[in-house]
Amino acid sequence: MSVNLDMNVLIQNVFNALSLGGLYALIAVGYTMVYGILRLINFAHGDIFMMGTYFAFYAITLLFLPWWLGFLCAICLTGLLGYSIEKIAYRPLRNAPRISSLITAIGMSFFLESFAVVVFGGIPKSFNVYPKIFSQVIIMGKTRIPILTFITIIVTALLFLFLWWLLYKTKTGLAMRAISVDIPTTSLMGANVNKVISVTFIVGSAFAAVAGILWAMKYPQVQPYMGFTPGLKAFIAAVIGGIGSIQGAIVGGFLLGFLEIMIVGFLPSLAGYRDAFAYVTLVVILMFRPTGIFKIYSEQKV
Amino acid sequence: MKKLSFKVNLILTIVFLIGIYFFLANSNIFGDYWSRIITLIAIYGIMAVSYTLVNGITGIFSLGQAGFIAIGAYTSALLTLSIQQKEMSFFIQPLIWPLNSIQMGFLPATIIGGVVSAFFAFLIGYPSLRLTGDYFAIATLAFAEIIRIVIQNAYGITNGTLGLKGISSYTTVWWAWGWLLVTVLVIGSLKFSSYGRALRAMSEDPVAARVMGINVFWHQMMAFIVSGFFAGVSGSLYAHWITTLDPRPTSLGVMLTFYVLIMIVIGGLGSISGAIIGAIFFAFVSQWLRIFESNVNFFGLAIPGVPGMSMLILSVIFIVVMIFWRKGLMGKSELSWQSIYALFKKGIGDENV
């Protein structure tokens, strides 16, 4: 096992970890918001992320939109997709046993994957629809960092600012936080629960679309199963941080990003097991602190 | 009418199935293709029945079934492969010592596959069963993915991404249905014993069950280990049916867990006969839906096939069942001969066992 220690490599790895962690955090926020409100693991979230990248891809290649408009369209469409999924598949089961909604979510994920295979084709497509300036590399001394890494970090930061504003400065955000504590009481206080849940799904899905587009630029291809692994890892990030807690999802996402990049960076011989780190971390966390770092709620009904 | 016991029902079913088999076997309907499908139905049946023991009867929600199937498949395949075949396949890294010099028959290999799977079920269940609900589901899913990633990278044991090829196709209709019979016998007796009543009590309300003096943890553990054993057996049968193994997510990964989940949800979570009906349904429908994936010549009009269509339709059926018909076909009850009798007599089913 060769250990690779070099200052330039370290800086490069820190930036890589920040951008990967940011992407995980963006997806994890969608999981955690839905779980916080409905106590539902939205298994389809990783596939919503995948659909977002396909929407962007087709908006630009098929409709010949300029790239920024294509991305914007994709983000809106993905928000709409999240809204419809909640309305069609999850709302009828809101009062059913929680396992039923979990199974439905798994079915939804399976449906979106098959849908992508049928409609978009199972062969990976090259995602080269963005301006070439994004893939240029900034060279600082001996460190080489792609511009895309900076863009990812900035976009992630801006979106988290927006999320903070939404949650703590608007009435909808207040209602979201209230619903995550107690749905019936919040509804008695005059909040429109269905509307708030829809907003949650739209925001979460739009975040997933942004993460998906950035992801597809980073690893430039799209394919129907691309959402599974990042989705599962982001979910793990949410659990590590304490599912239901937004700060937790963000911290968990960055933690996972750092862990993955640093282990592979320092111990390249473990690269094949890269995907397993997240799962092992999850198992360890669940064993010792099942509620994650930021414990948000505990429920014991007898 | 006196209720027939589980065993009487089972014996009647076996007689009935063997009767059908001989009736059809003589009329030569079974081509090679159909006997393969009928074998597959039994393999799916074992997967589904062992899965429903955990997810339906015990009421804990595992998503790790594919991991146990994969362990059973790889273990038994490595044991039955001939030594020359192993030397030929493992060209990146030779197979480690004890495995490269043994070859055994199908039955001991299958049993060892099951035992190894059961052992892993113990290792995974011991920490995971302390978790509840969603957390348990995610932990088992994570473990199944870890198993798959290890299989993908441990070239010295599993041949990694190259996979195993040239496994002898030992799995016949008789092997598969014989093992299904053993599975139903064991899991059925478990369901209708005091253990089974304890398991069902736990699935209704774990806290109340604990108050009644049931050791919830060890009961769940037992169910998980038994389920792991039969998942391993089904993996072995599957390996010797399909004859090649590889660790892609779409073959022995999470997709397989989803397929088995579809079977038991359609059949009704918690019902053994429901699980088998679900397996039959899944095997037939996924075969039948293949027409959408091949080019069809419809009265001179060539309709191109769409790959992936069968899974799309199945997933739609799955979601519709979950939304509108959550109990599935059987609910938690079992199909029994007197319920069929009653169905013919009255025209209405009364399927309480």
Write the layout of secondary structure elements.
The complex is a heterodimer of chains A (302) and B (353).
Chain A: H1 7-38, H2 45-61, H3 67-90, H4 98-120, E1 125-126, E2 137-140, E3 143-146, H5 147-169, H6 171-181, H7 183-188, H8 193-218, E4 221-222, H9 228-241, H10 246-266, H11 274-288
Antiparallel strand pairs in A: 1-4, 2-3
Chain B: H1 6-26, H2 32-58, H3 65-80, H4 83-89, H5 97-100, H6 106-128, H7 133-153, H8 155-158, H9 173-191, H10 194-204, H11 206-211, H12 216-242, H13 249-252, H14 254-267, H15 272-288, E1 296-298, E2 301-303, H16 309-324, H17 337-346
Antiparallel strand pairs in B: 1-2
Helix pairs in contact in B: 1-9, 2-9, 2-12, 2-14, 2-15, 3-6, 3-7, 3-12, 6-12, 9-12, 10-12, 14-15
List the keywords.
heterodimer; A: 302 residues; mainly alpha; ABC transporter involved in vitamin B12 uptake, BtuC; two-stranded antiparallel sheet; two-stranded antiparallel ribbon; 4 strands; 70% helix; B: 353 residues; 17 helices; 2 strands; globular; disordered C terminus
Structure in words:
The complex is a heterodimer of chains A (302) and B (353). Chain A is mainly alpha-helical and 302 residues long. Chain A has one domain: ABC transporter involved in vitamin B12 uptake, BtuC. Chain A is built from 11 helices and 4 strands; from the N terminus they run ααααβββααααβααα. Chain A has helices at 7-38, 45-61, 67-90, 98-120, 147-169, 171-181, 183-188, 193-218, 228-241, 246-266, 274-288, and strands at residues 125-126, 137-140, 143-146, 221-222. In chain A, the strands form 2 sheets. Chain A has a two-stranded antiparallel ribbon with strand order 1-4. Chain A has a two-stranded antiparallel ribbon with strand order 2-3. In chain A, strand 2 and strand 3 form a beta hairpin. In chain A, helix 1 packs antiparallel against helix 8 (193-218), helix 2 packs antiparallel against helix 3 and helix 5 (147-169) runs antiparallel to helix 8. Chain A is globular. Chain A starts with 6 loop residues before the first helix and ends in a 14-residue tail after the last helix. Chain B is mainly alpha-helical and 353 residues long. Chain B has a domain at 7-250: ABC transporter involved in vitamin B12 uptake, BtuC (Orthogonal Bundle). Helix content of chain B is 70%, strand content 2%. Chain B is built from 17 helices and 2 strands. In chain B, strands 1-2 form a two-stranded antiparallel sheet. In chain B, helix 2 crosses helix 15 (272-288). Residues 347-353 of chain B have low confidence and may be disordered. Chain A binds chain B through residues 39, 41, 89, 92-93, 96, 98-100, 102-104, 106-108, 110-111, 113-115, 117-118, 122, 225, 228, 232, 235-236, 239, 272-273, 275-276, 279-280, 282-283, 286-287, 290, 302, and chain B through 61, 63, 127-128, 130-131, 133-135, 137-139, 141-143, 145-146, 149-150, 152-153, 207, 249-250, 254, 258, 261-262, 265, 306-309, 311-312, 314-316, 318-319, 322-323, 326.
